[in-house]
Amino acid sequence: MAESSILVAQDEFSCLICLDLVQDPVTILCGHSYCMSCITGCWDRDDQKGPKFRNLKIYTPRPGLGKNTMLDEVLEKLKKTKLQAARLAQCYAEPGDMECDVCTGRKYKAIKSCLVCLESYCQTHFERHEEFHSGKRHKMTDATGRLQEMICPQHDKLLDIFCRTDQHCVCYMCMVDEHKNHNTVSAAAERTEKQKHLEETQRKSQQRIQERHKELDELRETVETYKRSAQTAVEDSERIFTDLIRSIERSRSEVTQLIRDQEKAAVSRAEEQLKRLEQGIEDLKKRDAELEQLLHTDHHIHFLQSFQSLSVPPGSTDSPKITVSSHLSFDDGGKSVSDLREKLEHFCREEIKKDNFQRFTLDPDIAFKHLCLSEGNRVLTFGHLQPYRDHPERFYVYAQALCRESVSGRSYWEVGWTGHRCLSIAVSYKSIGRKGDGNPIKLGSNNHSWSLMCFLGKCDFWHNGGMTALPAVPWPCKIGVYVDYSAGILSFYHVTDKMTLIHRVRTTFTQPLYPAFWIDPGIGVRLFDL
């Protein structure tokens, strides 16, 4: 409401010539008010044509002009009201805002900065600055706290020129002095040129952001897929093991019941025999008492009459022979438990083989030049020099080879061999050494590889030059290798109709892992399919 009344008042007190608020108001005889400069200017130029002069009458002689004091006071109040309204429309500077350099006390937020005065102004002081410097060309910019950076520290002039030779901003004095004959352009022109480059850089950056977002979404989807697959596997495993536990519990109950039944039958027989024995003892004690009494009787006739019946020893029909074994056998129950354990172990090992089997092929670009690969690069033998191409990853000292594929997650594979020399069945990082004649590049002699070395049934485990002696295995035989990469588990098995653990090691794998081999002449190695 206050603003509306001010606008109406301003329209009513506008000069009919310049249509702005009357400055130094004068009123002529017709009653209209004008700016002193406007009315005198019109009379001086005799310019009284057009609609805005329709109320301006021609006076001869020209009347004297006196200042309209009352109107001037009203106009001053109107200006103050307008100034106060403009100030109320402003807001105080908050933390992080540019403050007006002219305000005292609590400062208002700056909206403009002068590159000549090197000051920032709120709305009110900006208007005063414009009034005070009207007619002067002060360069203004949006409020900034970097005014000093825009001024030449040497000449205290505005940096408005860019030197392409030295690639930095200079002022006019710099351009005619130390940057004379340099390739210089206006800062605005250089900004236009560099902005094109910056926009292209931004476009590429935004494109990379989109690509990264796409990769991020794909990775998140992959993670969710992993989680769903893992959850499904866990649920399936839980279901299988729950059924297995129930089956074991049922078998345990059955075995326990079998043992208890055998116990009950044996104890029942023993208790019957105990009763017969106890009864026999009681009969013998009674007979013994009768004999004792007869021995001490004084009646000869009674003695002789009773002697015939008491002098005969008890017969076998009176006291049958009783046989009780002190070693009762529960072999049937024990055998059932043993069979169940063997079946469970066999099941678990077969599941390891079936669920984690990975098919590997040997890499001809890495194999030693005397190693011959055949049958789809799944058979390795020592032979004549092979026509392999030169390759920077080839083994040049030892007869070693790596597979092309790396171990992924949980992996199982089986290896067999022929011959009666030495070989190593190993896993290795691809970063293992290739050249030189020192042991550190041999499988198991460094911290890049883990090796099971076999020779005529004797097995040793090697890693980083350290050796662990292991139990002997039949020669030749089939070896199963199991790796759980994330858990850091490496296991070697002797494989027949069952799997027997040879050695297991726990470590932390830090690089992709590859099946690897080292063989002596006369040895042939085969990667088996299940």
From TrEMBL:
Residue span, RING-type domain: 15-39
Q: Which residues cross the membrane?
A: none
GO cellular component terms listed in the entry, alphabetical order: cytoplasm
PROSITE patterns in alphabetical order = B302_SPRY, ZF_BBOX, ZF_RING_1, ZF_RING_2
Stretches of the chain forming a coiled coil according to its record? 260-294
Q: Name one Pfam family in it.
A: TRIM_CC
The molecular function terms of the Gene Ontology recorded here are: zinc ion binding
Q: Which InterPro entries match?
A: B30.2/SPRY, B30.2/SPRY_sf, Butyrophylin_SPRY, ConA-like_dom_sf, E3_ubiq-ligase_TRIM/RNF, PRY, SPRY_dom, TRIM8/14/16/25/29/45/65_CC
Q: Name one GO biological process term.
A: innate immune response
Query: What are the B box-type domain coordinates in residue numbering?
Result: 147-187
Q: For the region Disordered, what residue ranges are annotated?
A: 191-210
Q: Which residues form the B30.2/SPRY domain?
A: 339-530
* Source organism superkingdom: Eukaryota
Q: Which UniProt keywords apply?
A: Coiled coil, Immunity, Innate immunity, Metal-binding, Zinc, Zinc-finger
Q: Per its record, how is this protein called by name?
A: Tripartite motif-containing protein 16-like
